[in-house]
Amino acid sequence: MSDFQKSFSESTSSIKFDEKYIDNSVQPNDIGVAEQWAVKTVADPCVGNLATPVNSGYFTKAFINNLPFYREGISPNFRGLETGAAFGYLLYGPFTMTGPLRNSEFALTAGLLAAIGAVHILTALLVLYNAPGKAPNVQPPDATVNNPPKDLFTRAGWADFTSGFWLGGCGGSVFAWLLVGTLHLDTIMPIIKNIWTAG
Fold it and tell me: Under CATH, what is the fold of the domain 74-197?
């Protein structure tokens, strides 16, 4: 330690700052905006579910809580219908455009049948989740979903969700098939089909 440092360490007088440079509005426990971004435990720290800016932010909570699975005020059957319609509608395109019959005149119908088959497989998985011997797991409230639907996590509620999912999935696939079949896509379809066959 140098002599200069020793003189400061051995001095007993505290360092005085000019009063005009001291901000008295800031307290030692005041962390300001950082408190909004702090990572906190939701309930039990042993669970491992932390409230972060990502999973407890306004946009994330609004988006997740507006999905049909968590939206308040709708029945389990309608939850399944809406979820299944989205799945069926979105499954139709990949099966039609990348399926083995994509270059034939039966591509649209083959895509429809494949999408309905996939919806049947997903419905079978939902039925197995509600298999005898165990009840569906009830989701506890967490940082993202404050009020999970209680009526969905019963045997009857899950069965209603599953039947709605099947009907919505088949209906969504048929709706996509009708849209593609009735729109004038004769000029666009060959271009899209050649993207996957080139090479």
Answer: Photosystem 1 Reaction Centre Subunit Xi; Chain: L; (1.20.1240)
Hey, what are 57's tokens?
């932010």
Neighbours of 36 (CB within 10 A): 9
| Residues 94-132: tens digit of each pLDDT | 999 888 888 888 989 999 999 999 999 999 999 998 877
Tokens of 65: 């809580």
Q: What are the beta bridge partners of residue 40? A: 51
- Candidates 173, 161, 168; CA nearest to 79 is 161
Cα separation values, 6 from 14, 24, 133, Å: 15, 31, 76
Q: Which residues of the chain have pLDDT under 50?
A: none
DSSP string of 97-156, one letter each residue: HHSTTTTSTTHHHHHHHHHHHHHHHHHHHHHHHT-TT-PPPPPPP-SS-SS--TTTTSHH
Torsion of CA 46, 52, 58, 60, to 10 degrees: -80
